[in-house]
Amino acid sequence: MILKVGDRYEYDFSISQEEVNEFAKITGDTNPVHVDPEFAKTSEFGRTVIHGVFGLSIISRVMGTQWPGEGSLYLGQNIEFKGPMYPGDMYRIELEVKRVIGRLHIAVVETNIRHIETDQLVVKGEAKAMNKKTFVS
Question: What is the pTM assigned to this prediction?
Answer without folding.
Answer: 0.93
